[in-house]
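Q&A log
Question type: sequence-to-structure
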Amino acid sequence: MVCSVLRGIAHVRVYLARKASSCSRSHRPQGAGLAAGGAPGSVVELLGKSYPQDDYTNLSSKVLTRVGRNLHNQQHHPLWLVKERVKQHFYTQYVGRFGTPLFSVYDDLSPVVTTWQNFDSLLIPAEHPSRKRGDNYYLNRTYMLRAHTSAHQWDLLRAGLDAFLVVGDVYRRDQVDSQHYPVFHQLEAVRLFSRHELFAGIKDGESLQLFEQSSRSAYKQETHTMEAMKLVEFDLKQTLTRLVTHLFGDGLDVRWVDCYFPFTHPSFEMEINFRGQWLEVLGCGVMEQQLLNSAGAQDRIGWAFGLGLERLAMILYDIPDIRLFWSEDERFLKQFRLSNINQKVTFQPLSKYPAVINDISFWLPSENYTENDFYDLVRTIGGDLVEKVDLIDKFEHPKTHKTSHCYRITYRHMERTLSQSEVRRVHEAVQQAAVRLLAVEGRF
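Response status: OK
Response body:
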């Protein structure tokens, strides 16, 4: 019942603060709608609810136009294809006692979560850098757009689920290039095991235990026995190896790289050797027992993994630019209308139109400036005309000790040629907004 309530939240009709700007022949700079902290008494209207703004509010109109698009649920979209292929694999390979799929799927949960769900429920410390306002989209100090689908883990575990997939759009302020976009899509999975489930079929398994009190090491948590941890790790890696083999085909070389996540230990990144190049495709690990205990699953042990749908789709289909996933160009979309979701397809590039490059330099304010603020500003005003933004020079004045940044902005439309005058209007709007909203001192 709890799950149905969670699922129902996402069905509320989308009410956006601003409608999406169309990809018209004449691009109009989206200068208005840049949030630099909410005005007292004002609210953000999103997904049928009102959220009071405060000093943490930093949503941009550009990002708001993406909420509710749910590309992963649009039939025949490349992100939908990847999601459906993963779902199909889990449905057919992992079956419960009564012949029904072991893993349940949640792909329409609301992207608006509390900061507790996004951070605290996952044991992310209060001072962890991932919480920074400059790296996330906050509605206010209590609510935010989820930065990962893991924000729903605790609630689903608390509801009694022990095997599930969560798919959804996630939001992060980041650099601007062909691999990064402020909105992308994640798929994550969780599986828990009871003592009986984990040790069934193991010789002398009835004498083995899930838990003990010992010390934490690089290989296991302080509450897990080595036998339990090794079996969970083996099941996790076997599950993921089968998944990437399903997606990419047989004969794929895989390697595991030790890494750190606050909510798993031990933790790994999975890399595949694809066309002679090692590529990182997902992160995973044995779930922190403290997280499971707090969600009421203290008698279970489990694993979790998360992957980016855009990352996989770009590799699988040779899609070179992450902006293309938001394209409504029929030349792009029709390439993925397949009769069989497992059918191989290689993206045929649209004509690559020439780039228009402009630089912008300014002195930074004495405090409260982050590069992500500027990247988000450029995204908001330039929209998907902006291909990438590079910081090409830093300079500190020897007398005033003021710091100057110079950024190179590459403008390129994916469907037509941009005119110099069109780009000049957008670039001037970026200059004016940077001065007005970021308190920089222009050198232009």
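Response note: The chain is about 25% helix and 25% strand.
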